[in-house]
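Bumping with the actual sequence this time:
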Amino acid sequence: MQKRKSKNPRDYHYLILWALVSIGVILYYPIVQIIVFFKIMVNKTIIGKIRAKRESENIANDIGLKMKVIKAKKFGWTVILEKNGTEL
């Protein structure tokens, strides 16, 4: 009968796999939170402001107002609403 080698690389594969899975499970929730947070931050900065600007222009046009958007600062918008040429 042959004695089984204790330092067989296959024995460590399961240990390493189990460790990686456990670390992944532990870090899964924080990683998802971080990704969601970054998505929210990106939407709030560039894409969200442009989308909000378009939506507000559409709403203003539906009401019958003319909306001038002046770009001020980095992503801050200055909005001037006009009705029949007079500023509101």
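The tokens above came from a reply further down the thread. The longest strand covers residues 76-83.
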